[in-house]
Prior knowledge:
Blueprint: H1 2-30, H2 41-45, E1 50-52, E2 59-61, E3 66-67, E4 74-75, H3 78-85
Amino acid sequence: MKLLLWAVAGFLLVMWYLHVKKSNQRSRHRDGPAGGSQPTPDAAASPEKMLRCAHCGLHIPSSEAVTADDGRLAYCSDEHRLRHRG
Ligand SMILES: [Zn+2]
């Protein structure tokens, strides 16, 4: 009789474990960090990223910045981009 109780308890434990696992997966899928819909703390703090001109040091919004071919350097104008290269 004891064995039957243990079997029932084990069955319930497994069912509970599967239920928790499934609901965890569902919630992770719903608000998962991999989705990319959530704004990053950086983006929330400043609506537009400010870039520094690699030639003269002027700070410009990323939308107005001229980026180099490799995308790592930003410039305030196309003229400075060409000048910085030499
Ligand atoms: Zn500049």
